[in-house]
Amino acid sequence: MKKKLRSTQGFTLMETLASLVILALMGSLLGGGISSSVRIYRQSTALSESDTLSSTLFEAISDELRFATDITTADGNLDTYTSLRYGSGTRFSNGPDGRIQINGQDLVSQPTYTGLNASAIIGYSSGLFHVSLSVTDPDQGGLECSRIDFTIRPLNP
């Protein structure tokens, strides 16, 4: 019986505590790394989706303004115009839900926004439309993910 008590085939209390401290440190480092990776993944996904949304909105706005006629302005900004698709008195607006609208209808479909918000400022002077398009991420405190400034000349003003 004395032989079993003096056996060296186990761990001492100090060895067990040291291994628990090492495991706790490794767990906290791993947890911090995972949360950082998730944050970076979300940011890069938002940037990628904002580029796609910006490109889609750029094309839609360009196509609409390129064929605009009977253009009216108010304080240098586009007020109304005649559209091939929407008819006379057409207006762009920034909707309350973060979507760009024409005559109260979304310019592009809702799934295109993927949780992002967009707004556009459209000016008109000297026969040119000046568009400033901004895409923000509300999940990141309204961080501006993408901005495009471009100019369009209507074909038949």
Largest sheet: spatial strand order: 1-2-3
Order of helices and strands: HHEEEEEEEEE
Helical proportion, percent range: 25-40%
Oligomer: single chain
* Uncertain residue segments: none
Secondary-structure-derived class:
alpha+beta
Give the overall average pLDDT.
86
Major sheet summary line: 3 strands, antiparallel
Give the overall shape. Answer: rod-shaped
Strand residues, percent:
25-35%
**How many beta strands in the DSSP annotation?**
9
Radius of gyration: 29 Å
- Helical stretch count? 2
Distance between the termini: 105 Å
Q: In summary, what is this structure?
A:
The protein is an alpha+beta fold.
Describe the protein in words.
It is a single chain. The chain has helices at residues 2-5, 13-66, and strands at residues 69-74, 77-83, 87-90, 92-94, 100-102, 105-106, 117-125, 128-137, 143-152. The protein is an alpha+beta fold. It has a domain at 50-152. A hairpin with a 5-residue loop joins strand 4 (92-94) and strand 5 (100-102). The protein is rod-shaped. The model has no long low-confidence stretch (mean pLDDT 86).
